[in-house]
Amino acid sequence: MKTNKLFILAGLAAIASTSCSQKENTSGQPAKPMNILYIMTDDHSFQTISAYDKRYIQTPNIDRIANEGVRFTNSFVANSISGPSRACMLTGKHSHKNGFIDNAHTFDGSQQTFPKLLRKAGYQTAMIGKWHLTSDPTGFDYWNILVGQGDYYNPIFIDNGEKRQIEGYATNITTDLALDWLDNKRDKSKPFCLLLHHKAPHRTWMPDTCDLRLYDDVTFPLPENFYDDYAGRIAASEQEMSIIKDMDIVYDLKMADKENEIHSSNADLEKYGRELYNRMNPDQKAAWDAYYDPIIQDFKAKKRTGKELAEWKYQRYMHDYLRVIHSVDRNIGIVLDYLEKNDLLDNTLIVYTSDQGFYMGEHGWFDKRFMYEESFRTPLLMRLPGGKKGDIPQLVQNIDYAPTFLELAGVPIPADIQGESLLPLLKGERPENWRNSLYYHYYEYPAEHSVKRHYGVRDDRYKLIHFYNDIDVWELYDLQEDPHEMNNLYGKPSYEAVTKRMRDELYKLQKQYDDPVGIRFNVSDYFLISCGLRCIKDLELGG
Length: 543
What we know:
Layout: H1 5-9, E1 35-41, H2 60-67, E2 70-72, E3 75-76, H3 82-91, H4 95-98, H5 114-120, E4 124-129, E5 142-146, E6 156-159, E7 162-165, H6 170-185, E8 192-197, H7 234-237, H8 267-278, H9 282-302, H10 306-341, E9 348-354, H11 373-376, E10 380-383, E11 390-392, E12 396-397, H12 401-408, H13 423-426, E13 438-442, E14 454-458, E15 462-467, E16 473-478, H14 496-512
Parallel strand pairs: 1-8, 1-9, 2-11, 3-12, 4-5, 4-8
Antiparallel strand pairs: 2-10, 5-6, 6-7, 9-10, 13-14, 14-15, 15-16
Helix pairs in contact: 6-10
């Protein structure tokens, strides 16, 4: 790879794999090693970042990263569910290679991760916020993580192994802990890599008390496919992540009335919903009650049903979700201001992303998991001092983060890492051999939300998906003509050549990534088959 002189002048240090020794730049002064701030939220849809989509919310602080850096317009994940996505990010490998295929597994912390390699190279490493990998973090000088999914109010953190409850709102607390580490706990003679991972905006979308009345005067537009009938898409028709049918009145929509008259069809979810309220302190409860009690009484009085209830649920969901995003954006601004005040902007790579995308009512859904665009696609913004500004259109994936950070630090990228470094793209280069397709594999079934196991391939126009396990169904989409993926083209006349090309590409990637699961299926005929089996699902309030 050719060295970019301007990039080095801007602060990229060549750091040996066993030390963070500085290399002099052309000015004769030692260049500062490049710090890494990797900010990740949980379930933040690209639709609700105004750098991508201005229909719902303005996110000026998150947008600042894009405005001063780059916006990846084709950023995707390898497995759209929280724990597995995080494992892909840490290892630079697909789920079948890092061993964490679903949230029922435990991450093997003894394996190679990029924080371990950076730490060996002399970096100070820290992990603060949501971890969600079951095992304790490894490879960090400091870690302070939420227990499991974490709670929005008065959460319990595990501070390097010691549990303690911290009063307040999780997004604010996570930010405060990160800034405290940057200011007081790290060795400032070394470059740092800080993973700042927020719980928000994960289900159940509980806003900070100061944000409860935001957007009260806004009616959000209903997605055009909110009432999708799932024609030609068997797996989509059998999911259990529908706003209309599956979004819980008490757990998700906060209708935990004092009279205990409102009940949901899922007793466990209702119980959890009432317990979330009971976590609050008296001041938090007072603010919460002042806002939600009138809404609860209105809900009781109007006795909505059918379409009216469905659209009421959608509006409640959108209002709470976007209030949580507003808090995230405010806290990102606090972090950026800290970096600027402490002269860290000139030698820090800033990354903002989510562990996957999310449905904002598209197809009538919330949650993620499917390889359809809203959950497969994830926001990715990066600000690299001296680097490119503007859009990066190449296909990128979350397995690419680990090799990017390693190359930035001058650390050799191990041969078994499956991702590609994004550094050439960040420097404004256009690699001739950049990938032209992406591989995806989702495993968590039977489980919550009943999304079938599936794998697939996506290029710049088409997507081929195979749902398997208790089903044998293929789907093909023309993303140019059908961006909302409503028309399954698999098996239709005139698409034989496209199907064969995409199938061949899928098998090529499965061989490349050593995931040969699809080779045993015969797909020479174009048909849809459903075996009609239903498995018993495990209820797991995670993801």
